[in-house]
Each structure stands twice: as C-alpha cells, then as structure tokens.
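Lab notebook page, bench 4
Experiment: in silico fold of construct C2
Operator: M.H.
Input chain length: 476 residues
Purpose: comparison with the prior construct
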Amino acid sequence: MGQITQSTVQTGREPALSAQAIEGLRGQLRGRLLTREHPDYEAARRIWNGMIDRKPALIARCLGAADVAACIRFARAQKRALSVRGGGHNIAGTSLCEGGLVIDLSLLRSVQVDPLARRAQVQPGATLADFDAEAQAFGLATPLGINSTTGIAGLTLGGGFGWLTRMYGMTIDNLVSADVVGADGTFMRANEQENADLFWALRGGGGNFGVVTRFEFKLHPVGPEIFGGLIVYPLAQAREVLVRYRELVASMPDELSVWLVLRQAPPLPFLSPDVHGKPVLVLAVFYAGKDAEQGRRLAEPFHQFGTPHAVQLGVQPYRAWQQTFDPLLTPGARNYWKSHNFASLSDAAIEVALEHVKQLPSPHTEIFFGLLGGQAARVDARATAYPHRKAVFVMNVHGRWETAAEDRACIDWARNLYRTMTPHAMGGVYVNFLTEDETERVRDAYGPNYGRLAAAKKQFDPDNLFRSNQNIQPPA
C-alpha cells in the first residue's frame, strides 16, 4: 500500500484528475459517478448539517460492494482523499471530503428481515425509518437512535443508543456480523469467529477500518404498540423535578426509559399557545414492556413531581414514537454540538443546565440528557470498542439555528455550557456527538480501548486511507 500523507486529507488542493482516470472509474461502476458539473452533484453533496459545505471532486453513488472496492482502489492509485457517506447525518460532516472521492452508499437501503431467526440484514444506506418499517411488520426491533432519518451505518459504527438501550443494550451489542471492504479493496466478513479483531473494532470505532456493505442484527419482540409520550413542565419547577427524577431513575426497570430535554417549548398542539416559546423541561417517556397498564403505572410518578403544562401519554405505534422528534431535527439547519457523559446528575450539574437554558441563543437549540444504564451497563467496557458502560446520562448540547449570522452566538453558547459543565462530568464522550473541531477528544471517546483500536488500525488500514472520520491514527 502506498503511503498517503495527512496533507492530502481535505485540502482541496490535489491536482486535477485526468478525464481518462475519471472515465476509467466510471467504467468500473454499476452506480453513477458524479463530477462537479453533473446536474445532480449539488443535491448529492448536501447532508444533514447545513454548516458543512465541502465540494468533493467526485461522488460515486455505489450500488454494491464491487463499486465500493473499485472506489477504494481508485483513491489509493490516485492518492485522493476518500470519505464514506451512509445516511449523511454525522454532525461533523465526515461523509464529505474536500476535493476527494465520496463513496456514497445512500442508495443501498435494503432491509431484509427473517422473523423466524429474528435477524435483519441491512445495507449501509438504510435509515432508522427503513429498518423500523421492515422489522415492525413482524413486531420486531433492535436498539437504534431517536431520529428516523439517521443512517444505520454511522449510528452503529459509533455505538448507537436510544429508547431500547436499557432493555436490549446498545446497537453494537446487537450486531451479529458485518461485511467489510478493506483498505486494499478486498472483502472481509467480521464476526466473533471471523476477523474477530476487526469485529471488535467496528463496534464503536467508527469508520476507521473499512467500508461496511452489510450489517446483520439481532431482533427483539417490540410493539407494534408501546406506551409513551411527553410530560412538559415549566422551567420554574425544573429544579425540583430533576432532583425527584434523579431519585426515581435509580430504581427504574429496564423496560422504562425517561429522557430529559431543556428547550423553548415548540408549538405542539397539546400545549397552550401561551406556553409556546417559553423555556420548559420535557420528560420523554418510553415503556417497552408488553403491559401498557404497567407502563402507565410506572410513568405516573413522573407527572406528579409538580404541576405540568401538559401530560401527553398513551399507547401508540412504536414506529410513530420513533419519529416523534423528526420535526425538530429536519435536515438543512445549522448544527453544532458539545457532549459530556455523567454517572449521575449532581446538584451542580443541574444548576449549570438550568442557568444556560435561560440563555438559549435560538428557539431550535436544546440540551438533552439521554438515559443509559440497564442492559448497556452490564457489558464489560473492553468487550467492544465503545467503552463508556458506566455512563448513565449522555448530555448533548444541541446548538441548532437557521442562518450563518447566528453562528457565533450559538457556537459560543454551546462551548460555554460545555466548559462550565466539564467539572461535573465523568470524562469521556460519545464519538457520534463529536464535532469537526474536536479531534483532540478522540482519545477521550475510547479511553482504555484506544491502544487496541490503534493496533487494529495498523492492521487493517496502516496508511490511514479511512481518515475522514474521528480519526484513530495508526502507530508509526
């Protein structure tokens, strides 16, 4: 493998590709190859985070593993930067490289469910909505995220957590095998028996080791209806609610998950108009058990902490719940995140969050705390590349706004909240929440597992071809 220098990562200053080289690659693909002059190029380079504005030289809309392998060989031969796009939802925008070649997997969206074996075969362009549509036809699911437009591939490779995590673990805990095209263009299967070191690294190590062209997941009986909904409290009651919530969470069963959101109240139809735009604390309640009445009983204390603006709880389709937050997370807005892990929510951490929610720089900005624990915490920290099994809460400072003129105020607010909260956090960070300016936190994302990941990087990608990511450097 020829050495690829870091100076060519995303500079956009690589020499122009020859027409002969471009046509040579085009002739090897079943999918389409888009240059900057192609009428579909602009749409193809748009991703979820509107702040990302990179212009790759080529976008290969792959239709299978053979296309992926051809692109990898091309990038090596031409010494071009290479990036991989699944759902295009990554906050750092790593699916786009400036001046290089994008392996675009977004057309590969097949999800094949075997309800007897309780297994799903999933292509890397599939979204959570694609997965749920197929699996829920049989009353099955696996732990995924909370926004149905998120791509399965990026979510999984970073770890993956959501409403089912307390009951069934993280997304990676339910990954059975993966098909991978490696840095030399060859095909590998990774599972507990074959290429076990690669399989370990894929479960949380991001896109550092190859391009996954097929995921196989375990499925669990879920739905098709669940009990859940939202409880909305005025900010004036938030301190007392959070303290009581913290006490109750410690004894919650795995089937119940309650997340926290601090933000300005959106114009939800069940909220009085005079509440719209006011700072609120939202408790998002999800019960995955089969007995809806048991879910109702378990949720009851959470809306007796104070006097809520509204309580909207009930039985609903699991697929509908998975899309509840989609209207607040539509593609194209400008986004900047900062994140921390917590073993518990201390009084000091609560005060920091409450103080900053009074200063929200945009009506679209929020602070959320995802609840982990349960089955996810019963996995050893070294069993997968994702190590943060003792984290009970994951805070995402979700800066989100509409115009470039708001950039400075919104980014400064997010960074200030992150800095102020740092003394109260446990260290470590969820790699999928890292922005493009946080490369110094990559080691924090992997903690004690970083050394083994670096060794796997040296084995499977010694020249760091796959570096458009939260990069794990191969040892010199």
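Observations: Confidence is low (pLDDT under 50) at residues 1-12. The two ends are 15 Å apart (CA to CA).
Next step: discuss at group meeting.
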